[in-house]
Automatic annotation (TrEMBL):
This is IclR family transcriptional regulator. PROSITE patterns: ICLR_ED. It comes from the Bacteria. The lineage of its organism: Bacteria, Bacillati, Actinomycetota, Actinomycetes, Mycobacteriales. GO terms for biological process: negative regulation of DNA-templated transcription. One of its GO terms (molecular function) is DNA-binding transcription factor activity. InterPro entries: GAF-like_dom_sf (IPR029016), HTH_MetabolicPath_Reg (IPR050707), Tscrpt_reg_IclR_C (IPR014757), Tscrpt_reg_IclR_N (IPR005471), WH-like_DNA-bd_sf (IPR036388), WH_DNA-bd_sf (IPR036390). Residues 64-245 form the IclR-ED domain. Keywords: DNA-binding, Transcription, Transcription regulation.
């Protein structure tokens, strides 16, 4: 199963960064080069990717992906509506922006636009984030119905860094603050070197269907920059919500 998941992660990353070589894929995915190389051989044999032109072997996806993508619905409609909003958000903040959706008790990354800055955060499409330790997750939890929230917060929560909120009561207090200010902040709670500011995208019934976030190295998330990121991502989430109605 792990080999299959790694192969799918490699395919997603090739699609997002093509053309790309094995070394960069290994670095971005934090996998051994040998693992990435095996996945690339499998995908090439199956016809999902092909070598790009050039002396150094770099990979691009083939048109086979279009046949599968054209049969998909649901999240693709959300991604299509979100892309112009994400572009505006990236332009206004100068940072990497994410679109995530709640799925099986996690936040799953379904779209990403990266900053031009040389020092940046990086995450593969399809990656799952913990609800309680990510800005995207906390933004969604802040608008989750009380009964569902009680089921999610029955026990102590996993700790990822020194700043992860693991006590359910402390997290509830944090969610109250998020509802009041309109956006959530992750100050190194999932990865100590990564910060994020996020806002939930709400349906017409007020249910969280997605979350938008600004993602950056923790050193660029300061008391001076945080309010601007919060205002930008909150406005973007409202714009996307209006597009989905």
């Amino acid at each position: 199963m792990r080999n299959v998941l790694n192969t799918l992660r490699v395919l997603e990353e090739v699609a997002a960064r093509q053309p790309i070589g094995v070394g960069e894929l290994a670095r971005v995915l934090e996998l051994p080069k040998s693992t990435v190389q095996r996945a690339l051989v499998t995908l090439d044999t199956a016809g999902w990717i092909r070598p790009a032109t050039g002396e150094v072997t770099r990979w691009v996806i083939t048109t086979k992906a279009l046949a599968v993508g054209g049969s998909a619905g649901g999240d693709l409609g959300l991604r299509g509506a979100a892309l112009p909003v994400l572009e505006d958000l990236r332009r206004s903040t100068g940072e990497t922006v994410h679109l995530t959706i709640p799925e099986n008790g996690k936040m799953v990354l379904i779209e990403r636009l990266e900053t031009d800055k040389p020092v940046r955060t990086s995450m593969a499409l399809g990656h799952a984030l913990p609800l309680h330790a990510s800005a995207n997750g906390k933004a969604v939890l802040a608008h989750t119905p009380p009964e569902s929230l009680r089921r999610l917060l029955r026990d102590d929560l996993p700790r990822y860094t020194d700043t992860t909120i693991t006590d359910p009561d402390a997290l509830r207090a944090e969610l109250n603050r998020i509802r009041a200010q309109g956006f959530a902040v992750n100050r190194g709670e999932w990865r100590s070197d990564v910060g994020a500011v996020a806002a939930a995208v709400l349906s017409s019934e007020g249910q969280p269907v997605a979350s938008l976030s600004v993602n950056l190295p923790i050193g660029r998330l300061t008391p001076d920059t945080e309010p601007g990121f919060g205002a930008a991502v909150t406005a973007a989430a409202r714009t996307l919500a209006a597009r989905l109605i």
